[in-house]
Amino acid sequence: MDLNQIFIKYYPEWTAFEAVVFFSVLIGVTAILLIQVLRKHIRWVQAVSVLLLVTYLMLVFGSTVFMRQPGTRQAEYEWFWSWKVVYHAFEEGYTHSLFWEILLNIALFVPIGALLPLASGRKRGIWRALVTGILISTSIEGLQLWLCRGLFEFDDIFDNTLGCVLGQAMIGNPVTYLLMKISAPPKCKN
């Protein structure tokens, strides 16, 4: 499955209602953030990061839950079942399609982890990315189970959380550190 097929599968055409809701939320969040920047409660980098984070989360929830067609309630409660299938496929000399699904689930949450420290304006401990990844992914999986719009999997929660932690550790914290260094006022010498 190439990237275009993945995009078409997970991002179907929006209805007018979905578009109105999406853009209404974006306009509201943008207005609130603009007011916060003008009042000097947050910096513009934080406002842009929060706006990107909210936009991305709406797209993720839309593609993984709300834009899917209802089906039957499905769940896979075994931990690491997909990793076991992929491992055995590699042992037999071929790449299983689940391998790409695992990588996509990890990659899906890297931007969330990357934006967390930028949105807060300071480097964050990895445990915050861990908790955030677990909470957001569990919300998605729980909604999929409750609304019958996908397969509830503990593996997805693990993969998404791993992506969130990697995003914060490899992108979010280093970029935030650099931005803090660049934007810090110069130190006076006596």
Automatic annotation (TrEMBL):
One Pfam match: VanZ
Tagged with keyword Iron: no
Residue stretches making up the VanZ-like domain: 54-169
Membrane-crossing segments per the record: 14-35, 47-67, 98-119, 126-147
Keywords, ordered alphabetically: Membrane, Transmembrane, Transmembrane helix
UniProt cross-references to InterPro entries, sorted A to Z: Teicoplanin_resist-assoc, VanZ-like
Keyword presence, GTP-binding: no
Name the record gives this protein: VanZ family protein
Organism this protein belongs to: Coprococcus hominis (ex Arizal et al. 2022)
